[in-house]
Amino acid sequence: MLQVNNLCIEQGGRRLWDGFSLSLASGERLGISAPSGFGKTTLGRVLAKWQAATQGSILFAGKPLNNQGYCPIQLVPQHPEKSFNPYRTVGASLHDAWQPDPDWLVRFSIKSEWLDRRPNELSGGELARIALLRALDPRTQVLIADEVTAQLDANLQKDIWQCLIQLSQERPLAMIIFSHNKALLNKVCSRVISLEK
Question: Which end of the chain, N or C, is less surrounded by CB atoms within 10 Å?
């Protein structure tokens, strides 16, 4: 489904990724663990077409991704507050993407009254859940999750991951999961890449 070939990413005069390649099958959950500052967030931004790579190719279903229309690869960033317009309600931002029915709010432990608030009126964990739901538009085929449950308590983390695993099997939905928590990655992923250098 997703094929990354010889990807090089430079930022601020520094080469973060050099000749990186990977393949991701439909419904596969790939975990990537690496130290802080390694460039995981930047890699996620490039894969989701938020920024350009220096060189290399990203193919989806055998074709290059274009910049027109909805991108089937969606990123939920580590700091979700930066992905919301501070002057609009989070519900408006969610509904710009799609219109989930109330059952979706229950699945992700989202209170309906949160949708009438602006980003600065919600906690990081509350925003993370709404950003996650926003990214799960039915057109999304690859979800990139960058430390998405790090701000949640253990029980809520468990519930969210159970829901995501179920979704990955139902659609199927492929996932790339960035996390420092190797125990979590080993539990929820079908394959884990650990990068140390």
Answer: C
